[in-house]
């Protein structure tokens, strides 16, 4: 942000030296990046500007900061105006068709003006800042921009078809020639907001004026535009058409509707001074009602606690008042009316920051000791760490990958009704899609390891995934794991991983894996269901996907939507003493129909409530000619243990037989000997 020392001093009762300005503004949060001494003795200064401080993208805003820190009174310009001409509605009209994108559009009209070179005072200010002086009318709009931070524009009224301004969306295929040497005609789309006359676009709203309604040496009548536009659409248009301007820079940081009309009056005064003419009576306005002032409260105790020092109530009120806040205090609570130009103030902590800035961070005393508040164990952060620790214990390597992938990669991991979320950024043209799954990122890492001779890696990542569903952008937290394993072992290994992860995050063990054909990148695939709720998917990576990613070994993957599980962390678990007696295990092999799931077997045995049964464990699945078509062999292990003594075989044989009978009767199982 380029400013000059003398221009800042224009708004202070007493002058402040260049060195002091630089020191004061740096301390206020605007670091000095460089200076340049000019031939007339003035100094051009370049300050770094944060995106949330649009109020300080002008000389008056920086003068306000200096005033607050020094106590030197601010001397703002007069914003009153005398309009003695004919009623403005006899000369022009305004229609705002996009009040959401243009909350307020105002226009004033000056008749009988003349275009000439700027007077020396105006020309000097514009050129000392580093800009080129054009003519009195154009330089006046730049003067208001750099003084007030409010972008404005001047149209040649006689070039506006119908002498009318219409704020509307562009039509696909409309063309527009922006102002500027070497400018080229651009093709507009229906996503562009334009300022038009009765026939054509005459400005790209908030970004650039058009050559077809610009002022020239022959201009006699002008229409002054002062408006506010949605920062997002200004940023999108600026990037889409690769047009950046001082106006778009400020609109992207937000301009308050309450500043629009006063700045139009200020510009009218300057234009009358440098170009003459008669100002028509009244202002054309179309838009929403002015927003109500924002009121924020702050506890003085909270303020002092956060700053680490004791400020009096009077000091707090004085600091806030010095930067334009209307403030009152009662019962230890400060009530502040936020000035319209401070769109970044919404919360109590924002007021604390302002008090600290004005008081001076360098004036906050250092403490020999620092109080530390240990956060309660739980929540998402603790849950994530617990999951990652558990994965590391199982031999998984944590990965952290980029969230942008190619559209082709993203399209392979979308469910029905989902589409990829794309970003509009030329720098990401090759990979514009936010990942809908962590699996493609892990496959990239898997392929990199494979190319470097590292086999049988187990990879995991915990991160955000993004999709568009029903027109809405959806972001969720996902845990993904991939491992290489034989076809008859991978599913079992993954099931064990899922059980371990769920046991860390929840006390429930009601986990069911049901076959599913709705996950196109898995064959076979299964849905992971916990307490009746779908929480993820697992299975063997499909042949097509493995071929696409040049994966040589059979790869199994699992995805868990863990955000809802983090809400339950830490689980309310009950511990029990380590067993003192040895266990006795019994294996049962049974032949069942192919459609009988392990979850059916498990739930059948659990419902028996067999005495002394400690655990039911899946062992393996076998299919073969001797088993029969449409059949499979399942082997399970039941572990029995006594609490006070070693069990006898007879005590174990009875519940084992009962389990076998239940499996035969309820599932039609054939017990293998």
What's the SSE blueprint?
Elements lengths: L1 E3 H5 L8 H10 L4 E6 L5 E5 L11 H12 L22 E4 L7 E8 L8 H9 L7 H13 L3 E5 L7 E6 L5 E2 L9 E2 L5 E4 L4 E4 L3 E2 L12 E7 L2 H10 L5 H6 L5 H19 L2 E2 L4 E4 L7 E5 H8 L5 H10 L3 E5 L2 E5 L10 H12 L19 H15 L3 E2 L5 E2 L1 H5 L6 E2 L1 E2 L10 E2 L4 H13 L7 E11 L2 E13 L2 H19 L5 E6 L5 E9 L2 E9 L1 H6 L6 E7 L1 H4 L16 E11 L4 H9 L6 E10 L8 E11 L7 H19 L2 E3 L1
Parallel strand pairs: 4-7, 19-24
Antiparallel strand pairs: 1-3, 2-3, 5-13, 5-14, 5-15, 6-13, 7-10, 8-9, 10-11, 11-12, 16-18, 17-18, 20-23, 21-24, 22-23, 24-25, 25-29, 26-27, 27-28, 28-29, 30-32, 30-33, 31-32
Helix pairs in contact: 4-5, 5-8, 9-11, 10-11, 12-15, 18-19
Count, helices = 19
The SS-based structural class is alpha+beta
Helix content: 25-40%
**Average pLDDT:** 91
Kindly, what is the distance between the CA atoms of the first and last residues, rounded to a whole number of angstroms?
A: 85 Å
Contiguous low-pLDDT stretches (5 residues minimum) are: none
User: Can you count the beta strands?
Assistant: 33
Question: What is the general shape?
Answer: elongated
Name of the CATH homologous superfamily of the largest domain = Phenylalanyl-trna Synthetase, Chain B, domain 3
- What is the CATH C level class of the largest domain, in words? Alpha Beta
Q: What's the alpha carbon Rg, rounded to whole Å?
A: 36 Å
CATH topology of the largest domain: Phenylalanyl-tRNA Synthetase, Chain B, domain 3
Instruction: Report the sheet-strand fraction.
Output: 25-35%
Give the biggest sheet. 8 strands, mixed
CATH architecture of the largest domain: 3-Layer(bba) Sandwich
């Amino acid at each position: 942000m380029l400013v000059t020392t003398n221009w800042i001093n224009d708004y202070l009762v007493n002058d402040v030296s260049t060195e002091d300005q630089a020191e004061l503004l740096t301390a206020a949060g605007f670091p000095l990046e460089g200076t340049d001494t000019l031939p007339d003795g003035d100094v051009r200064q370049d300050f770094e500007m944060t995106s949330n401080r649009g109020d300080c993208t002008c000389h008056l805003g920086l003068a306000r900061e200096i005033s607050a820190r020094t106590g030197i009174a601010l001397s703002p310009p007069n914003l009153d105006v005398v309009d003695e001409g004919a009623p403005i509605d006899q000369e022009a009209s305004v229609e705002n068709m996009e009040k959401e994108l243009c909350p307020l559009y105002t226009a004033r009209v000056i008749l009988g003006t003349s275009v000439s070179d700027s007077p020396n005072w105006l020309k000097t200010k514009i050129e000392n800042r580093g800009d080129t002086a054009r003519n009195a009318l154009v330089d006046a709009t730049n003067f208001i921009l750099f003084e007030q931070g409010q972008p404005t524009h001047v149209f040649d009224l006689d070039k506006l078809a119908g002498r009318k301004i219409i704020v509307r969306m562009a039509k696909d295929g409309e063309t527009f020639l922006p102002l500027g040497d070497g400018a080229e005609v651009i093709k507009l789309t229906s996503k562009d907001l334009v300022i038009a006359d009765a026939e054509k676009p005459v400005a790209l709203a908030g970004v650039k004026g058009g050559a077809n309604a610009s002022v020239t040496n022959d201009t006699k009548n002008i229409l002054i535009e002062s408006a506010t536009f949605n920062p997002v659409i200004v940023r999108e248009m600026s990037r889409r058409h690769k047009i950046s301007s001082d106006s778009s820079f400020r609109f992207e940081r937000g301009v308050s509707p309450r500043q629009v009309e006063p700045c139009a009056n200020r510009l009218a005064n300057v234009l009358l001074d440098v170009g003459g003419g008669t100002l028509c009576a009244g202002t054309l306005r179309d838009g929403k009602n002015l927003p109500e002032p924002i009121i924020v409260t702050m506890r003085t105790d909270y303020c002092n606690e956060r700053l680490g020092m004791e400020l009096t109530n009077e000091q707090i009120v004085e600091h806030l008042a010095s930067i334009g806040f209307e403030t009152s205090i009662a019962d230890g609570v400060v009530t502040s009316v936020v000035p319209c130009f401070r769109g970044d103030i919404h919360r109590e902590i924002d007021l604390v920051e302002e008090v600290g800035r004005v008081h001076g961070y360098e004036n906050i005393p250092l403490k020999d000791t620092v109080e530390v508040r240990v956060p309660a164990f739980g929540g998402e952060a603790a849950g994530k760490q617990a999951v990652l620790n558990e994965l590391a214990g199982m031999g998984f390597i944590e990965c952290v990958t980029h969230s942008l992938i190619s559209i082709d990669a993203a399209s392979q991991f979308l469910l029905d009704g989902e589409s990829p979320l794309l970003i509009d950024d030329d720098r990401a043209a090759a990979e514009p899609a936010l990942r809908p799954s962590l699996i493609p990122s892990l496959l990239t890492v898997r392929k990199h390891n494979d190319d470097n001779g590292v086999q049988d890696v187990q990879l995991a990542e915990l991160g955000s995934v993004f999709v568009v569903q029903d027109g809405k952008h959806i972001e969720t937290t996902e845990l993904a794991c991939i491992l290489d394993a034989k076809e008859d072992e991978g599913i079992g290994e993954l099931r064990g991983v899922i059980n371990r992860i769920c046991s860390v995050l929840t006390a429930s063990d009601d986990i069911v894996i049901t076959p599913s054909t709705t996950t196109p990148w898995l064959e076979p695939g299964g849905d992971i269901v916990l307490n009746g709720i779908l929480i993820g998917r697992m299975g063997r990576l499909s042949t097509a996907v493995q071929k696409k990613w040049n994966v040589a070994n059979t790869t199994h993957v699992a995805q868990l939507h863990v955000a809802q599980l983090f809400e339950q962390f830490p689980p309310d678990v009950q511990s029990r003493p380590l067993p003192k007696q040895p266990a006795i295990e019994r294996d049962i092999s049974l032949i069942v129909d192919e459609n009988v799931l392990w979850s059916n077997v498990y739930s059948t045995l659990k419902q028996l409530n067999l005495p002394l049964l400690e655990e039911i464990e899946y062992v393996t699945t076998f299919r073969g000619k001797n088993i029969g078509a449409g059949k499979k062999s399942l082997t399970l292990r039941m572990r029995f243990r006594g609490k006070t003594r070693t069990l006898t075989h007879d005590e174990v044989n009875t519940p084992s037989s009962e389990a076998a009978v239940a499996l035969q009767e309820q599932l039609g199982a054939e017990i293998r000997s």
